[in-house]
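Limitations
The structure tokens in this dataset are predictions for the assembled complex, not deposited experimental models. Users should treat interface geometry with appropriate caution, especially where small molecules or nucleic acid strands are included. An illustrative entry is reproduced here so readers can see what is and is not provided.
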Amino acid sequence: MSVTTLPRPAEATAGTAAPERLCAWAARERRKRAAVLGGLTLLLAALAMISVATGAVSVSPAELGAIFLGKLGLTTSVEASRVQEAVIWSIRLPRVVLGILAGATLAIGGAAIQGLFRNPLAEPGLIGTSSGAAMAAVIAIVAVTHLPFTLPAAAMSWIVSLAAFAGALAATFLVYRLSLVGGRTMVATMLLTGIAVNALAFSVVGLMMFLADDAQLRTIAFWNLGSLTPANWSSLAVVAPLMVIACVALPMMGRAMDALALGEAEAHHLGVAVQRVRFLTVLLVALSVGAAVSVTGVISFVGLVVPHLLRLAVGPNHRLLLPASALLGAALLVGADLLARTIAAPAELPLGVVTALLGAPYFLWLLIRERERGTLL
Amino acid sequence: MTSKPARRLSNDFLARAALACCLAGSLWLAGCEKAESASASSTAPSAEAQASQAAESAGLLVTLGGDVTEIVFALGEGPRVAGSDRGSLYPPQVHALPRLDYHRQMSAEGILSLEPEMVLLTAEAGPPTAIEQLRSAGVKVVTVPAEASVEGAEAKIRAVAEALDATEKGDALIAAMRADLAAARDRVAQTEERPAVLFVYARAGQGAAMVAGENSPAETMIELSGGRNAASGFEGFKPLTPEAMLEFNPDVVLMLDKGFEAIGGEEGLMGLPGMAETTAARKGRFVTLPDNLLLSFGPRLAEAVARLSDALHPAAGATTGG
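Predicted assembly:
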């Protein structure tokens, strides 16, 4: 990244301020950053631990300890049954890991796209990522049964995942290419192109649902509501690197996005390679959200609202907002999945329903409160 | 000025109330399912007692797929069933058991929490990850083939019977089914009439209805019952259009109970474009059968064929015995 050092927001306005005040401000920002990120990390860790320990099959803390120590080759006085070990090791743990990664990816992708477009309605869905994935996955679900030969179930789920990933990338790059004007992307053009591509994708989803039989319709419905049930180590090994790279690389764009908040020309004059930042951000978001969605299906709400919640709570500084979004998104998804699989046990609620049911009313409440305070734009 | 805090309070209150309502509503909805199965099981203590008795002698079973569940019960192993998926609707005893997620979207932990020794599932069940997870927990997983034909139904029974070590009962079940099917075929053979039957598939919330084409499970059932598929020239399902309706001009319209309900009963069916001009509508020949009977291709295949062929050939006399 050739992002040159930017004046920090306060420096820009406090040019005449005494150096001590500047130092105090910087120290306060550092403390705030440490407190917010530390607190969210603790929240995520607590939720992850509760999530691993809770479920339809009961496993005591001692048995849980025995399972983990057993994996390290240590034997303990407490013996866990084979069922318990399988539940922890091959069901709950990959599920929690996928929840953390997918939640972090969706939320940080949302924060990055909102920052890039300086638009509060933006999210990975807006540039075609989610709708492209949904369209391709639904086509795959309906089309595989029309093949002249029958595929094994395992191959079918891989095909749907691959299609979703390819669809996410293809739709995002279609939006990106179409909005290139004279070698530059225009924000307004990109948003409108995104809306058009989304409309196209959803009409294809509608067409496929029209053609689908009852069983396919159920599969499509579940896919559109999202779930962490498909988590297993082998699929995680494929998608996790993409998600981790995005969660590490996107926060590095924080300074550039803070500069972009002032306007594109201003950011350019501050030394931000606007075009490069935009391309890299779109690339990282498409790769990581495409990877997440290919395994979990569409999970609504996280990408749109988590960055907003944080912006209301900790302010618009992207260097804090981006990593904090990742942590809160991860915590939200792990928590929502915990509810989804325990409330109706032994059955499970669709995850996307839980995230929206819990998150949307809270977000509304927050909006009303902020409006009353007059702090909302 | 003085009204401002009050307004803020009320807004705040409204927001909190809305939030509380949403949460309570969602939890209640989710809880209902549980309460329902709990109350159902409490009203059938004998079944539960039987199950625990059976569990002592042989391990518990979990069945996923309506046809698989039916076969397990038909083989007399019903008391061993600890739970089945929500697609399993027959026999009525299954409603007293814990309901698991639909078999295409099963969750391994929910199944494992019922501590089954063996999980019998239809070949359509998934996701594959869940099946692997069951296997890795040491549970025996038996996949039952899911072919929609007479041979398919026999293969299903054979697979389940083998897994449950009840091959004799399975063979008896197959023999009885063959005999019943032969009887139905004999009755059909008495008449030359082969009415054109259109299988109309409708579902709630979907504007259009679909018709079943060639090589569909519905066609198989229609042909077994002495009818012929009014729709031809395409495979699978196709949206129903007025032109198609007139072109096919069915003598009988066949539907699933739920689809018939979803479309608004006879009135709704008559309202479908082109329907009123068909022979079926003029003669009022609409046939509906339960969803879990007509297309399940399970142990009640012969019953389904008998009921459908009686409906298609009323002149031959209702001869369904037992």
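Some entries come with short summary sentences. For this one: Chain A touches chain B through 52 residues (CB under 8 Å).
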